[in-house]
Amino acid sequence: MNKQQAIQILEKNMQNTNLRRHCAGVGFAMAGIYEYLKANNWKKDSPDNVETWEVLGILHDSDYEITKDNWNKHTLLTLEWLEQEGIEKSDPLYLAIQSHNNKITNLRDPQTQMEWALECVDELTGFIVAVALVRPDKKLNSVKLSSITKKWKQKAFAPGVHREQIEQCIEKLGIPLETFIQITLKSMQDRSEELGL
To answer: Which residue among 27, 47, 102, 145 has the highest number of C-beta atoms inside a 10 angstrom radius?
Structure first.
C-alpha cells in the first residue's frame, strides 16, 4: 500500500483535523526511525521500504474516531479496511496494525523493529506536541531536546503519556532515549507546517 492510498483511507474515516495530524506526525516519525535504524541497527525483520513505515504511522489510528468509545474494536476496523484493499493477513503492514492496541485486542505482541518503533513513538509524538503547545509561540521549531527532557522528568506534565512505553526504544530498538526523542522531534519539525505547528 502506498502513502496516497493510506491518506485516502484516513481521510475517509477520520474527520478531526488534530487526529489526522497526529497520524501524520507518527508517519513522519516512523520514516525518521526507519532511516536511523537502516544506518545503525537494521535487523532485516521489517520492510526495507520507508514508505511502508510511514504508511503504518498514518494508518495506526485510522479507525480511532469510530472506535474511541469501544477500545475492543480499535484496529479491527482498520484491519477490515486493509483486507478490502487486498492486503494479505501475512503482510507486514497488516501484522503491524495487529500489534497496535495489542494490550486490549491481544492480536499480536510487537515483534519486528517496525512494530516496536510504532509502539514507542506513538506516545512520544503526543508528548512533543504537548511541549510545543506550552511554548510562547506554540511552534514545533522552537522546541529543543532540552525542553523535552526537562518536561520528561515532570510527572505532572502530560500525565497521560506512558513514558515507560516510549523508553522501550532502548531495549527493543537499541536506540538511546535522547536519540529517539531527537529523531522524532526532527522528523516532526521538518514537516511542521503539515502538522499545523
So the answer is: 27
d(CA 125, CA 132): 11
pLDDT in tens, 137-184: 999 999 999 999 999 999 999 999 999 999 999 999 999 999 999 999
- Tell me the CATH number at 36: 1.10.3210
196 assigned to some structural domain: no
Four-point Cα dihedral 31, 36, 40, 44, nearest 10: -10
The verdict on residue 20 lying in a domain is yes
Number of domains present in the structure of the chain = 1
**Which DSSP string do the residues of 8-50 spell out, in sequence order?**
HHHHHH---HHHHHHHHHHHHHHHHHHHHHHHTT--SSS-S-H
Q: Which of 14, 36, 1, 19 is nearest to 117 (CA)?
A: 36
Name residue, grid cell 496494525.
Answer: 97
